[in-house]
Amino acid sequence: MEKLRFGLVLIVLCLSTSLVKGGDPILTFEWKVTYGTISPLGVPQQVILINDKFPGPIINGTSNNNIIVNVFNQLDEPFLFTWNGIQQRKNSWQEGTLGTNCPIPPGSNFTYHFQVKDQIGSFFYYPTTALHRAAGGYGGISVHSRALIPIPFDINPADEFFVLVSDWYTKSHTQLRKFLDSGRSMGRPDGIIINGKGGKGDGKDEPMFSMTPGKTYRYRFCNAGMKDSINVRIQGHTMKLVEMEGSHVVQNMYDSLDIHLGQCVSVLVTADKDPKDYLLVASTRFTKEPHTATSIIRYTNGNGPASPELPNAPIGWAWSLNQFRSFRWNLTASAARPNPQGSYHYGQINITRTIKLVNTAGTVDGKLRYAINGVSHVNPTTPIKLVEYYGVEDKIFKYDLMKDEYEPPAGKAEEKITLAPNVVKVTYRNFVEIIFENHEKSVQSFHLAGYSFFAVAIEPGKWTPEKRKNYNLLDAVSRNTIQVYPNSWAAIMTTLDNAGLWNLRSNSVERQYLGQQLYFSALSPKRDLKDEYNMPDNDVLCGIIKDMPLPKPYSV
After folding, report:
1. Which of 3, 150, 407, 474: CA 20 to 30 A from 398?
2. pLDDT tens digit string along 224-260?
3. pLDDT averaged over the chain?
4. CA distance linking residue 203 with residue 210, whole number of Å
C-alpha cells in the first residue's frame, strides 16, 4: 500500500510539473479523512478528522511555496476541501467547490496542487461537500513572508499560535442537513469551541497556549464557524493587530476584536503581566443569548490560576462598525513582494462595472431558500468549471440570470426566487465595484474566491451612487471577506485579473447550502496558458463530460 501511495504522489508530481515555478519549494502533505467520535461540547458526536486530528494539520508555508495535498477520502460520502483565502492564481481547478470540482469519491484519493503565489497571511481550509463543515474537517493555513521581505514588526515573535474559533452544534451534520433539505433552518448553535474544545472555564482545563514572561507572540485567529460573528479577547492583555487576510495593517491596539464568519486576523501579544494563568475568551456576537468559550494561556513558571472574572464583550453592532472603520492598510509595509503595499493606487482606477447584490430569504414550494438578487444557486451535477472547459454550457445552465441591479419586493410581498445555477459573466481584467445590500435583521458575511478586494465602505441604509464620496480610496484593507450589518450596505472594489471560475458565497453554512452564492466566470478570451492553466491530468471527472473526448488544451 505504501508503495502504491508513493507511486500516486510521484505520478501527480510528474503530471503537475507545469504548475511548479522554478526554484520555489514544494511542501507535500498526505491526509487521511475519516470519521471519529469526540466531544467538543461534552456530548459524544461524529466529527471529521484529518490524520486523526480535529482541527486538522496546519499548513505552514512561505509565499510562493507549491503546496501538494494528497487527500484520501475514507468517509462514506464524496468529499472536497476549499482553501479559504488562497487565490489559486490561474488555477481555479484547485478551488475545491462544487462549482469547480467533482468530489473525491469514497475510498478514493485526489491530490490538490497549488501555489500560494504572491500571498502572505492567515487563512483556513474546510470541507465544501454536503454539510461536512458542521462536522469539522477544518484547519489553519499560515503563509509567511520570504526571508528577503522585511516584516513590519518591532519585535520578532517568539512563537505563533493558530486559534480557530467556531460556533458548534451538538446535532450531527447528517441531522442538520436533513433539516435544511426538508425546508427548515438549522436553528441556533449550541456553543463555541476554540481549536476543537469547548473549555469548561472551571480552572481544570489543560493550558492551550504557553508564553514566557517578557516575550511577544503572534496569535492567528480565524472564525471557522457556521452562523455567528465571534468576539475574541485575552484577559488582562491588549492585542496589536498586524495582519488581516493577507494584508499588513496599521498596528492599532485593541482590547477585543470582532471576527465575522470566514475572517482571519493576526495579532501580537506581549507577556508583560504577572506570571500566572490568563483566559483567552471567545463569545458570540449579536445573539440574544451569547455563547462563550475559554482556553488557558499559561505563563511559564507562573503561579496562580486565571481569574474567574471574564472581560466583557462589546454590545451592539455600532461598536463593530466603528472598529471596522479603524482598520487601515499599512501603505509602507511590503507584503509578498518587495514593493510597498501602498504603491498600488486602487482609488485612481476607473470603475468599469457596478454590481449590486441584495441578500434575501424566502420560500420555494414551502421550503426555505436564500437568494442573491432573486436567484438561489443550485449546483449542477457537472461542475460549472468543467462545463465551460468542455464547451457544453447550453446543456447545463444559462449565464446572467441574475441582474446587476435588484430591488426586493416592498413590504410583506413574497419575493419570487429562481432556483438555478447562478453564473455571472465578467470581463477579465476589468476593475469592478460590488455593493452588498443587507435588508435583513442579522449580520451577513461574504467571501470572494480568487481575488483580494478593497473594503472601501460600510454604512447604514441603502446604497446610492452619491455614497461613493464616503469611500476610503487611500488605505482600505485588501482582504477576501466582508461583513454587512443589518439594514446596511458594504462596498468593495477589485480588479478581475485572475482568469477562472470564482465563487462568491455567504459564509453562513445554512445560507450557502440553500443557495446564497454565485459564480463569476472570468474567462480569458485567448485561452492562453499565460492567463490560465489547463485542466489537471488527475482531475476527477463526473456528469455529462465524464466520457467525452478531451477538448483542445490552452496553449502559449
Report:
1. 407
2. 999 999 999 999 999 999 999 999 999 999 999 999 9
3. 94
4. 15
Question: Global pTM?
Answer: 0.95
Residue 22 pLDDT: 54
What would the mean pLDDT of 489-500 be, rounded to a whole number? 98
**Cis ω on the peptide bond leading into residue 380 (within 30° of 0)?**
no
- pLDDT higher at 22 or 273: 273
- The residue whose grid cell reads 461534552 is 42
Distance separating the N- and C-terminal Cα atoms of the chain: 39
Q: Which residue has the cell 514544494?
A: 26
Identity of residue 4:
L
Other beta carbons within 10 angstroms of residue 19's beta carbon come to: 18
The separation between CA 117 and the C-alpha centre of its own chain, rounded to angstroms, equals 17
Q: Within 10 Å of residue 401's Cβ, how many Cβ atoms?
A: 17
Give Dmax (Cα) for the chain: 69
pLDDT digits (tens, 9 = 90+) for 251-300: 999 999 999 999 999 999 999 999 999 999 999 999 999 999 999 999 99
Distance CA 455, CA 446 (A): 12
Q: 313 with 165: CB under 8 angstroms?
A: no
pLDDT band for position 183 (cuts 50, 70, 90): very high
Distance (Å) of CA 174 to CA 271, 472, 518? 43, 44, 24
d(CA 65, CA 119): 10
Rg (CA), the chain: 23
230 is written with which cell numbers? 465571534
Strands (E), 396-509: 418-420, 423-425, 431-438, 444-448, 453-460, 478-479, 481-484, 488-495, 500-506
- Inform me whether the pLDDT recorded for 6 exceeds 50: no
3-state secondary structure of 28: strand
Is the four-CA dihedral 329, 335, 339, 345 of positive or negative sign? negative
3-state secondary structure at position 17? helix
The partner residues of 243 in beta bridges, in order of sequence, read 248, 266
Burial class of residue 199, CB neighbours in 10 A (0-12, 13-18, 19+): buried
